TrEMBL record:
<feature type="active site">
    <location>
        <position position="260"/>
    </location>
</feature>
<dbReference type="GO" id="GO:0009450">
    <property type="term" value="P:gamma-aminobutyric acid catabolic process"/>
</dbReference>
<feature type="domain" description="Aldehyde dehydrogenase">
    <location>
        <begin position="23"/>
        <end position="482"/>
    </location>
</feature>
<dbReference type="InterPro" id="IPR015590">
    <property type="entry name" value="Aldehyde_DH_dom"/>
</dbReference>
<dbReference type="Pfam" id="PF00171">
    <property type="entry name" value="Aldedh"/>
</dbReference>
<dbReference type="InterPro" id="IPR016162">
    <property type="entry name" value="Ald_DH_N"/>
</dbReference>
<dbReference type="GO" id="GO:0004777">
    <property type="term" value="F:succinate-semialdehyde dehydrogenase (NAD+) activity"/>
</dbReference>
<keyword id="KW-0560">Oxidoreductase</keyword>
<dbReference type="InterPro" id="IPR050740">
    <property type="entry name" value="Aldehyde_DH_Superfamily"/>
</dbReference>
<dbReference type="InterPro" id="IPR029510">
    <property type="entry name" value="Ald_DH_CS_GLU"/>
</dbReference>
<comment type="similarity">
    <text>Belongs to the aldehyde dehydrogenase family.</text>
</comment>
<dbReference type="InterPro" id="IPR016163">
    <property type="entry name" value="Ald_DH_C"/>
</dbReference>
<protein>
    <submittedName>
        <fullName>NAD-dependent succinate-semialdehyde dehydrogenase</fullName>
    </submittedName>
</protein>
<dbReference type="InterPro" id="IPR016161">
    <property type="entry name" value="Ald_DH/histidinol_DH"/>
</dbReference>
Length: 491
């Protein structure tokens, strides 16, 4: 369906829960509505799961667990690989669907299809590389075998900002490792996951291996699943506040957890940086997904010697950005996800201005239907401003000047978050010092975007636990078993 219309596409998206290989309504018949943030209009009405649906989904995942774990790794990998191929054929549909339910510009939605698809391909390859060790114990009296086994049924909870990639980044490694799952997408953007599961079904997914719950009552539905002793793992991507609650709930059942939480990325530009590259990287790190990314640069920490020039260049670029519905040609800035997001961005900007920052462009909600905020640049942000502490999650670029390297590192690390940092310098030794000193799980060194399915994505401090992607990603869904056997040569 290369030239599918919006209405045709939405008709093809399932509107029910997916449990044990069947599309079913919510047991109590409840529904929820999904909106286009660019127009405010309802685009689809779908099933709204309750507690009983949640437990039915867990039942299905538990029932399917042993057979899926016993399925040859090559066969598990081929389900993922076929799904990757199908996704390439349907890239137009998935890109349009994400733009409709989440608002991101279509060009970026295609980028997410490419990125999200790579997790299916990468983990189709990793499924056959689950290995162990065999060795002699130091005393020489026995043999030590170390083997890897699927953790067991998993609950996967995803956010609204990358509706496809956040789902594939969890589903693909879980399936490759031999785990069955219940996935609960965000209430604001559930359609992409429903459509993805339809695709996985075509790719050969057996019944019960992936189960989908769409719900407006996430805490009520996930609570009993997390408390159920049959669940063995919780993988969550979302805000730190919700992640902290889920870690507490998981403690009761001593669950394995992966937590991909909030960020407050520093973007450091040193006086010796290639400024053209730094500006290009800054625009990508800030305005991708209209700033609604956990990896979005939140604080531009720029050496005083180049701060004015950097500010002038980013402001020139930003004033040329087209704001509009993500489906329109040339749009760079789509809507924010909802009214609250617009209000939050504006409150942070007004607070910073009130404390002495300078507005270089933007600074207001856009006066049109939908939830739009002007692309904004502010400079001279003062210590103590809320924008330095909180995730902006909007198209606001805020510049803080610094004097020397010590100063830059101190400002960069002055946050409870630690997901990603960006550093622009042409001094190799300085770049290496930053790798060692910046407290983040990832770094872009003269790069404004770091995400890659082949790399371990994740944070330190309040940005989370565990890694997704790379060779590390599958281990989040495997547990290690050690077995000791006697020396086979002993009499
Ligand atoms: P959120 O925490 O509000 O919601 C995330 C998911 O959790 C949604 O599916 C939501 O329905 C569900 N949820 C909310 N409350 C819950 C509860 N009490 N119990 C169980 N489930 C609950 O986050 P969001 O607004 O959807 O996403 C934005 C946040 O996600 C930002 O903080 C962003 O930085 C973070 N994020 C992190 C990464 C990462 O990889 N580190 C990636 C994307 C987004």
């Amino acid at each position: 369906m290369a030239h599918v219309t919006e209405a045709e596409l939405l008709q093809h998206v399932p509107n029910e829960l997916y449990i044990n290989g069947e599309w079913v309504p919510a047991i109590d018949g409840k529904t929820l509505t999904v909106h286009d943030p660019a127009t405010g209009k309802v685009i689809k009405t779908i099933a709204d799961a309750g507690v009983a649906d949640g437990l039915a989904a867990l039942d299905a995942a538990v029932a399917a667990q042993d057979a899926w774990a016993a399925t040859p790794p090559r066969v598990r990998g081929e389900v993922l690989r076929r799904s990757f191929e199908l996704l390439q054929e349907r890239k137009h549909e998935f890109a349009l669907l994400m733009t409709l339910e989440m608002g991101k510009p279509l060009a970026e939605a295609y980028g997410e299809v490419a990125y999200g698809g790579e997790f299916l391909r990468w983990f189709s390859e990793e499924a056959v590389r689950i290995t162990g060790r065999y060795g002699t114990n130091p005393e020489g009296t026995g043999r030590m075998i170390v083997s890897q086994h699927p953790v067991g049924p998993c609950l996967l909870i995803t956010p609204w900002n990358f509706p496809l990639a956040m789902a594939t980044r969890k589903i693909a490694p879980a399936l490759a490792a031999g785990c069955t799952v219940v996935i609960k997408p965000a209430e604001l953007t559930p359609l992409t996951t429903l459509y993805l599961v339809k695709l996985l079904e075509e790719g050969g997914l057996p019944a019960g291996v992936v189960n989908v719950l769409t719900t407006s009552t996430s805490a009520d539905v996930s609570g009993p699943i997390i408390a159920d002793k049959r669940l063995r793992k919780l993988s969550f991507t979302g805000s730190t506040a919700v992640g902290q609650k889920l870690i507490q709930q998981s403690a009761q059942n001593v669950l394995r957890t992966s937590m991909e939480l909030g960020g407050n990325a520093p973007f450091l530009v040193f006086g010796d940086a290639d400024l053209d590259r730094a500006v290009e990287g800054a625009l990508a790190a800030k305005f991708r997904n209209v700033g609604q990314a956990c990896t979005a640069a939140n604080r531009f920490i720029v050496q005083a010697s180049v701060a004015d020039e950097f500010a002038r260049r980013v402001t020139d670029a930003v004033t040329g950005f087209t704001v509009g519905r993500g489906t329109e040609a040339g749009v760079k800035i789509g809507p924010l996800i909802n009214e609250d997001a617009v209000a939050k961005a504006d409150t942070l900007v007004q607070d910073a201005l009130g404390r002495g920052a300078t507005l270089l462009t933007g600074g207001h909600a856009v006066d049109r239907v939908g939830t739009f905020y002007e692309p904004t640049v502010i400079s001279g942000v003062q210590p103590g401003s809320d924008i330095l502490r909180e995730e902006i999650f909007g198209p606001v670029l805020s510049i803080i000047p610094f004097d020397d390297e010590e100063d830059a590192v101190r400002i960069a690390n002055d946050t409870e978050f630690g997901l990603v940092s960006y550093v622009y310098t042409q001094d190799l030794a300085r770049g290496q010092r930053m790798i060692e000193r910046l407290q983040t799980g990832m770094m872009g060194l003269n790069m404004g975007v770091v995400s890659n399915a082949a790399a371990p994505f994740g944070g330190v401090k309040h940005s989370g636990l565990g890694r997704e992607g790379g060779t590390e990603g599958i281990h989040e869904y495997l547990s290690t078993k050690y077995t000791l056997t006697p020396d086979p040569f002993a009499a």
